[in-house]
Protein: Transposase
Organism: Colletotrichum chrysophilum
Amino acid sequence: MKQYTENEVIQALNDIKNGISTRTASRRWGVPRPTLISRTKGHQPRQEAFQDLQRLSAGQEASLATWVTAQADLGLPPTHQQLKDFAHRILQAMGDTQPLGKRWVDGFIRRNPSIKVQRSRSIDSRRVNGASTEVIRDWFKYLAIPHIQAIKPANRYNMDETGILEGKGDNGLVVSIIECISAGGAAIHPLVIYKGKTVQQQWFPLELGPYDGWEFTSTENGWTTDATAVEWLERVFIPRTKPSSPNQARLLILDGHGSHTTTDFM
């Protein structure tokens, strides 16, 4: 059966209001005659009729769909599981802890046709790791996306991680540093990651001096983990880069490290 849009239904109903028969309007716009008869009697469209049964409101779904397409434009579309996880978080924020159904993602995509589903495919490692002309050209294409261009340079940030190794082998001491700077030249205080179970007070001088305001944490091996990446977001980036106006967007540019693509981080 030919699929029809809500706009075609509206056009057919307008014809009927102007004296066209339901049969003729049905043929002209490809909308089943019983549907037109039902709508002329005041019945709601199926989507609106079941909207109250949907777990997320129409506005929440629209916002989620906008986020999905924005991530896709940036080359990092969420998986079906990540999409479902985000929906769960929205519900939990409203006190709804019931799980979503197995077919929720299918329904969400059907209700939001702007979202397209693609099978994941492997990418040539040279495209990911090599600084080729193609890779650099693609990166600048992302910067040309209109809603990225609209972000002020002062609100565009690049973060990266660096490691310092003292000694050699298994006995070497690793310290990682997450640093971040804006396109306007403003650097925010880094997060320093030590190797250990906890950060020890005796590691620091009584007066931090130039290191005052830096943040410190620890991991088992001194490297960044999924948890420390989120910790950096919550303790450093989000509070210290808050724009003067809540309507201003921020851009964070980072590499594809696994800790940057978790549901919690995204």
